[in-house]
Design goal:
This protein is α/β, with parallel strands linked by helices. Helices cover 34% and strands 27% of the residues. β9 and β10 form a beta hairpin. α3 runs parallel beside α5. The relative contact order is 0.21.
Amino acid sequence: MLDLKNIKKNYRMGVIDVEVLRGIDLSFESGETVSIVGPSGSGKSTLMNIIGCLDVPTEGTYFLDGHNVADMNENQLADIRNSKVGFVFQTYNLLPRISALSNVELPLIYGDRKNLRERSMLALEKVGLTHRYAHKPTELSGGEQQRVGIARALVKNPSILLADEPTGNLDSKSSKEIMDIIKNLNKESGITVILVTHDLSVAKQAERIVSIRDGKIVN
């Protein structure tokens, strides 16, 4: 489903080129769960941004469903993000003044608004939070806020779920609940799950662990 070959990424810092990714070769099968681990500065977040079409490589090829993402313009990348990729963030990124349901509806506002309310409630149902749909984020626990974040990522029925430290701000009980939800979603819907995490107990729950250090895959 995803195939990255010789992915390199450089950033210009003044007169110096900083090499963040140094030739990544990595493939993902449809429906599998993969954890990407590595120390701070290893390049794992940069790799995730490229996988999620938030950035493009300096060199290399990245094929997603047979299309070379590395050659796409910003509009094409946005189309891929909107149709194929759901994002879950460590800090939830919810709007505090609107309800859980309204937060889930946001990805649909500028696209296909057909059955907007029904689709958003279904997404909340998948994460077991329909009974809290009218509550604002400040009225929800951290685990509940992350469930809203997952529902928002799912509302467009993406084929890929990218989760960046999805349990990083949660206690152990809430972390387990979130990981159980993610694993059940993978099992029931076949969504491809890619986790970026520093927590080895979280990483081990995936089918495969990819370790990155200094911009290279080491294991």
